[in-house]
Amino acid sequence: MSVNTVSKDQFKQFVAALIASEPSVVGVQAKGDRFVFDDLKSADALRLDYDVSILSPRKYVMPQKETLLKFEVGGDCQSVQDGKPLILLGVHPYDMAAINQMDELFSQDEYDTHYMCRRRQITIIACDVVSPSKNVFASSMGTATVQHGYDMLLTDVGESIIVEVRTDKGRVLMNHMPAARPASEDDLAKRSAVWEKNQHVLNKHVLECKPSYLPKLLEKNYDHPVWEEKARLCYSCGSCNQVCPTCYCFDVQDVVNWDMKTGSRVRVWDGCLLENFATVAGDHNFRKNRSSRFRHRLYRKGKYVPGKIGGQIACVGCGRCITACTADIANPVNVYNQLMERTDIG
Ligand code: SF4
Ligand code: SF4
Prior knowledge:
Blueprint: E1 2-7, H1 8-21, E2 25-31, E3 34-39, H2 58-61, E4 65-72, E5 77-79, E6 86-91, H3 93-107, H4 113-120, E7 122-127, H5 138-141, E8 152-156, E9 160-165, H6 168-173, E10 181-182, H7 185-201, H8 214-219, H9 226-231, H10 239-242, E11 250-256, E12 262-269, E13 279-280, E14 284-285, H11 290-308, H12 320-324, H13 332-341
Parallel strand pairs: 2-6, 6-7, 7-8
Antiparallel strand pairs: 1-9, 1-10, 2-3, 4-5, 4-12, 8-9, 11-12, 13-14
The structure holds iron/sulfur cluster (SF4) (2 copies).
One iron/sulfur cluster (SF4) binds near residues 239 and 327.
């Protein structure tokens, strides 16, 4: 690992060099008064001062639709692994934490070659948050800063940018930054000050218990009235799932081509709040009512997924679901705090 410092002009030259020489660079850019991850065409378009992107960078590690295999009807099939080199520039710590969780989930028991092949080809340049969004609560979830997963981490300290290089992929990128100098004690102190500040300011909704208590809290509240109270207003639109960096549920569909001889198996995003998410053969829906779907989402974040990945809570506090929910019921902190009100922590 090395830590370097560059001026903002030098950093802009670095981004221009990446765009000119790397096959594909994606970075955060303005879209109206909001921000998106998209193909980066110029260094000037990059906005590392963004608050939060509409969709998380999940769409690059796990596309909304991907082909898993191609087949001949009644014949052979061929696995498709379509990863291409990609640089993802400007990933906030909470989104990095979400990608770290997905890396763990897709590489355990059922090793997912499609996800892992794509992921290996992605170089991540993370960046610390400059402008907190109105609904972020990463501090409550322990993701205001991040310590691993990225190849390079950028911290804007005002007049310059501190560049931490974590991996060989990051070291190679440093060839595009010839003017970088080793960070001084003063630079490192400024970076620590940013981290310290972000621990406080990225907390617009305060979770009133430690995240590690959530599995136990949920275990005690399966029949709590809050599920019905909130779900009464739910449109089952699935927006909270779509914007979430940690949601990874998918549907698999076989599509036969017009020639009726060949086809492909595709994986598409799904969402547990959608009415037919849990419909199985025979048209049986085992989560037919809204409250059971609403509850499932928060159990998945706070109990089921943590059970698979060493207790890590599958909500990183990005706040996107809060902004996306027109019924104003998706805020996980509100629900968990409501459960806390009537639960003896013991
Ligand atoms: S549940 Fe909401 S706040 Fe938590 S990670 Fe998902 S979108 Fe972000
Ligand atoms: S909780 Fe909100 S965003 Fe999620 S499905 Fe219901 S209405 Fe839509």
